[in-house]
C-alpha cells in the first residue's frame, strides 16, 4: 500500500525542453548579449572567471552553436568587455573592468524588489540644439533615473539622481499626465513584450507546480534565459512610479515572477555552476 501511495504522488519529469523553447522564442537573442547575461547572473557572483567549456555547456543547452559562441567571445574581447586567458589546454574568460563597471549598476536593478518612487516631481529641460548632440546627455539622464518625455525634456521623481548642470529644473507636484505623455514614457511595443514574458514565465511556474525540479544544467539555462529577457526589457526604461504607468502595465508582475523563479531555479542551478566554474565534474541529474 505504501508503494502504491508513492507511485500515485510521484511528480512528472520537468518539461525542460519545452520551457527553454518557450523562453528562447520570446525574441531575437544576440549571442554576445546572452554571454553578458551569463557572466552577470552566474559568473560574477563566483569570482568572475569562467572556463570556456562551462560557457559552452550553458550556451549549448540554450541552443547556441559553438561557432556562434566563439565569434561572440572574440567580439566581446575585441570590444573590451571580457578578458581571455589560458592555463595549459584550458581557456578562461572574465569580465573586464569596463564590463564590471557596466554590469554593476544594472545588477542593482535586475535583482531589486519593486522601487518605492514618489514626488516631489522635477521637470528638466535642455537648451535647444541639434538632436545629434544630445545623445550623451540623454543617456546620462536615463542612467540617473529620469524619464524622457521628448527630445531634451525629462520628468524625474524625487529619487532620481542629479540632473546635468546645463538643464533648467522645475520642482513641484504632478497634477496631470495625459495619455500622450504616458505613451511616450512606455510605448505599446514595450508593454506587449512585458506581457509576452509574463505569459512565458507563467508557463514555467505551472511546470514547477506539477513536476520535479529541473536537472541542474537545465535550471542554469532557464535562469539565464529568464534574466536575459528581463534585463533586456528593464534596461530600456528607468524605474517607473505606479501613478504614471499606462493601464495594463505588467512590468511589476513580471518582476515578481522573475524574482520568485530565480529563487526556485537557484537550488539546482547553483550546484551545477559551483562545480563547473571551479573546474570540477558537474553534477548529474538526481
Describe this structure as you would to a colleague.
The structure is a single chain. Helices cover 53% and strands 12% of the residues. The protein is of the alpha+beta class and 286 residues long. The protein folds into 2 domains: 9-103 and 186-276, Arc Repressor Mutant, subunit A, CATH 1.10.10; 121-173. The two termini are 25 Å apart. The strands form 2 sheets. It has a 4-stranded antiparallel β-sheet with strand order 5-6-4-7. α4 packs across α10. It has 11 helices and 7 strands. The chain has helices at residues 2-9, 16-24, 31-43, 52-62, 66-78, 97-110, 135-143, 179-185, 188-210, 216-234, 251-276; strands at residues 49-51, 82-87, 90-95, 121-125, 147-150, 153-156, 168-172. β5 (147-150) and β6 (153-156) form a beta hairpin. The model is unreliable at 1-8 (pLDDT under 50).
